[in-house]
Amino acid sequence: MTAPPPTRILLADDHALVRRGVRLILDGEPDLTVVAEAGDGAEAVARARAEPVDLAVLDIAMPRMTGLQAARELSRLRPDLRILILTMYDNEQYFFEALKAGASGYVLKSVADRDLVEACRAAVRDEPFIYPGAVTTLIRSYLERARQGEPLPARAITEREEEILKLVAEGHTSQEIADLLFISIKTVERHRANLLQKLGLRDRLELTRYAIRAGLIEP
Question: Rg (Cα) of the chain, in Å, rounded?
Answer without folding.
Answer: 18
